[in-house]
Amino acid sequence: MVQGVAIDLVLLRVNGGKLTDDGNVQRDDIRAYIPIACNLVTSKAYYVNRQQEGDRDFPSSFYGTYNCAISQSNGVATIVFPKTVVPLPSNQGIRYLIDNCGNTYTPLNDSEVPMINYYKTQFPNIRFYRRTGMVAQLWNVSPLANNVNAVIMIDPENFADTDELPIQAGMEQEFLDIIVQHFTGQRQQPADADVDSKDVNVVP
Amino acid sequence: MSKALTSIETIADDICGDLGDSTSRFKFSILRKLLAGWRDMMLYMGNEGICIKTAVLNVDNVVELPEDFVYEMKVGIKRNGHIAVLSLNDAVEKQLLSQEDTEKTVCDIWNGGFFGSEYIFYNYDWNGSLGELYGWGGVLNCNGYYNIDRQKGEIYIGSLVPDDAEIVIEYQSSGQKDGLTLVPTEWWAALKYYALSEWYASKNLNLAQYNRLAYEREYNKTKRLYNWRSSLFIANKMAESYRSSVH
What span, in angstroms and rounded, lies between the C-alpha atoms of A203 and A200? Predict the structure, then answer.
């Protein structure tokens, strides 16, 4: 589902089936809430898939490939991600890293980092990485490698209205319901101009 | 022990695939357990160990192989600082180009105009330090470039190899093991179950026990394979014993 369509659908619903320019819920409001709902249904889909099929994969169509140059400053090989990676559980935002020599990189978690100086000599042909924020540190980088293709899922906050949202098929209705529920109960119309004790536009 | 070797990384990838771990976040943990299993099997399987080395040899019509050569893993030809990889061991998938395409690709590699899969020649001894050499190719047809006579320990160099090139050969050495993480392919199943048993030990006791039993079954199967003798061998031994007792 494209982000612009999702916004229109939510607007239709909260305005009772009629798109209006002077509603209190604006497109920007919905756009700001989309990443929250999006991440919620993405995580939920992951656990549903895992419970039903034992499958730990997010659909690969949600990932994009970005080329990142390897920096060797201070003797430490690093890459900087060009956009914010969605902080999914278990570092699922990064599907994999592969350098221009065809080597893939194995992720390390925090408890494994202290061991790496020992194990990088035990596994001289295996590459490792550790992500911290926008940066990933690399170990055992081939001297011929100078860039890495990062296959990552971008944070929905970076999306334009024409971008496809990373929502698994079948979860769209729940995604829309979450946003509609958030905006339902909010004032839809400005107060009426009549100076009396009644406001006909107030939500009952 | 079979000649085909498998990288521990490949076994780790196999396990990660079975676990549905597409981002490989369990891989390092699995690798550590495989290494522990490998040491266990090296200790108790009575294996002599595996040592991989790389040598760079000058081109001649006939090139003497290193004295500790057992069999080749990868063969490449180095020229202008670039190595064209002509052959790979059986554990690496390969698809051969035609002879004509091979000649063109080899020239491209030597001229630095080829960017494909990179292959590593492990344990190259350069002035006393062990390092790696990197080559490209893996799909090249080696006909016309070289032929190895393992009995005589010689490589016969074909006419397609220029005089200023060097032969790069990664081979199994008869020397001491060096910790390189290649294992015989027949250990694959046993190592896999060992790693899964250890991996599940703190997560799911039933699966840990199941995999431990599977490991012991595979371990015994591999050991039987190593200790196997044909009935003819045994019959011969019995006959020898009988003859010696008669005389």
Answer: 8
